[in-house]
Amino acid sequence: MASEQNKKVIELIKSRPMNPNASIEARRAGMEKISERVAADISCTPVDVGGMRGEWVSAPGADPNRAILYLHGGGYVTGSIVTHRAMVARMSRASGARVLIIDYRLAPEHPYPAAVQDATAAYKWMLAQGLTPRHIAIAGDSAGGGLTIATLLALRDSHQPMPACAVAISPWTDMEGTGESVKTKAAKDPMVSGGNLTDSAKAYYAHHDPKHPLISQIHADFHGLPPLLIQVGEAEILLDDSTRVAERAKAHGVKVELEIWDEMVHVWHVFAKILPEGQQAIDKLGAYVRAQMK
Length: 294
Known about the structure:
Layout: H1 4-14, H2 24-33, E1 43-49, E2 52-58, E3 63-71, H3 81-95, E4 97-102, H4 114-128, E5 136-141, H5 143-157, E6 165-169, H6 181-184, H7 194-205, E7 228-233, H8 239-251, E8 256-261, H9 276-293
Parallel strand pairs: 3-4, 3-5, 5-6, 6-7, 7-8
Antiparallel strand pairs: 1-2, 2-4
């Protein structure tokens, strides 16, 4: 049986349906308008990340020498520092590390490979600030979860040092939507629809092959990647994007922890203020990052 809090979250999502005819600009502004406010004790410091807008988000006591590079979700077409600031603040508190969140370039104005280029540039910028790879984690949700893995692949292929670990929350790793859960979970998932995924995918990969491993990570070679935590909800259409990536990464020798959270919707962490499981997942994520950075 779904908890009362989870039922309330689903009702809240359904009460805010997206206008299918809304412009990209309206959708982006709408996401920012409903974003949770950050706790008063959180430090949010804007920073220029090699010409890209970034922000250091730090909870009290966060170790300045330990950091998470966070890549927000939004289907590669929406999302920003503003939309995810409160969630990463909770991650800073749980992990004891600072979080650098960036406004990477979005499609359709900037299709692939812009987001991958920006994410890898941000990681290199962190190294240039004196942070050591063993004290850096890369994390992201939804499209940002897929981008997290793509960033690791791009860093490996360019012979950059790997971070201590990575965390992918409800990652979108298959631009063609071939997972069975796209159909079998459609009635349970109030957050994401197959049609929305298709439109966002086409905007992102544009004229590129959607099977390219930096675009759809289910086709990637995972050899040489650091430990990976994947958190996904049992009730989301992207469930198979997580399970298939986890299987492939394990087959290539990567240490993977896959957590499938019963009845949870896509990126339920964003509802941590009202959903206990959201905060619990963030706490587990924080503990994982702490352990891997030791």
